Amino acid sequence: MSAEKVHIFDTTLRDGEQVPGCKLNKNEKIEVALKLEELGVDIIEAGFPVSSPGDFESVSELSKIIKNATVCGLTRAVENDIKVAGEALIHAVRPRIHTGIGTSDSHILHKFKSTQDKVLERAVAAVKYAKTFVEDVEFYAEDAGRTGDEFLARICEAVVKAGATVLNIPDTTGYCLPEEYAAKIGYLRDNVNGIHKAILSTHCHNDLGMATANSIAGVQFGARQIECTINGVGERAGNTSLEEVVMIINQRFKGQYTTGINTKMLSYMSGLVSERMGMIVQPNKAIVGANAFAHSSGIHQDGVIKERSTYEIMDPLDVGVDHSSIVLTARSGRAAIAYRAKQIGYDLTKEELDIAYDHFLDLADKLKQVEDKDLEQLLKSKIYKIAS
Ligand code: KIV
Ligand code: ZN
User: Fold this and answer.
1) How many other C-beta atoms lie within 10 A of the C-beta of residue 387?
2) Ligand 1 pocket, mutate which of 75, 138, 205 (most atoms under 8 A from CB)
3) What is the rounded distance in angstroms from the CA atom of residue 341 to the CA atom of residue 233?
4) Domain around 261
5) Cα separation, 334 vs 343, whole angstroms
6) Are 66 and 199 in a shared domain?
7) Do residues 56 and 25 share a domain?
8) How far apart are CA 191 and CA 153, in angstroms?
9) Which of 15, 83, 102, 225 is the Cys-Cys partner for 201 at CB 3.0 to 4.6 Å?
10) What keywords are annotated for this sequence in UniProt (predicted)?
11) pLDDT in tens, 312-359
12) How many structural domains comprise the chain?
């Protein structure tokens, strides 16, 4: 049986760009979008065209230059939003309008001061209107994570009947537990008439640190599209991290699910987005953090030097990092010193290593990390007696 495709919907340029201070100008958006296309994402959410003339222009420009990926524009369930998005997407080879409305009680009662029936009517009207501009219409049920399953199924069924091709089930507030989110997706898969005509999509926020787990749980229960961003950027605590879900699918679901992502570009993409958005990546970030393939304790270093897979569950080359690193700290052991000394040109005998190690520990207790230049200095002054 061949692996089932999970579509990767990248929203770095829309949900990601909503982060305060992360706004990109048109040229930066073009640069990132072209690289996203090369990375192999299936859909690029390019922006929210009605929100500003600049965003309209960016979506319109990306529609002209992106040829392989679907280009998507966000709207509210508001006629003018949809009309403007339709205009911005006019040149796209594969245009998609992403329209929707809040469906939880708190959205319906507090935001809209409305009723479920009226919200359902607006959702259907929005999808029908969007269909007059493009064939591919994705519907989002904002705050689906806190929406009762029965109403969610009713609104999903109605919008599929109106022509929605994708059903986005956002955990907008990052509140769901993985089993709750999985059950919600499973309920929709099993209870929405006509569900086979649409793709179920996850869109999980990270307020409790569960965005990645929830997205994968959604896939296991029937979702075939994941909405995510590079480095997990997005509103508040962020969105699902693209690099994490893609590598989970690659490492844990081989043969069952597949994506079209060229994983060797992941590290590069992380650096590009971090740089352009001015948002640093935490060093311990999974997959793309500076320490994701760095080993610093003696026990781990010894294991990894003998056999990489002892402490690495994936090959750094697969995500575009040329090698794992052995970081020298006061917790490092002899194996790491010998290894790093060899890397900088010193093949130490056992006696030399014993001497180097004693001096190394004194030095390492004073420094946070011993760099190559510190090690070289130590070897030259304590063993080789060559003036530096
Ligand atoms: O988090 C959310 O609900 C969203 C929607 C607008 C799709 O970003
Ligand atoms: Zn979102």
Assistant:
1) 6
2) 205
3) 39
4) 4-277
5) 14
6) yes
7) yes
8) 7
9) 225
10) Amino-acid biosynthesis, Branched-chain amino acid biosynthesis, Leucine biosynthesis, Manganese, Transferase
11) 999 999 999 998 889 999 999 999 999 999 999 999 999 999 999 999
12) 2
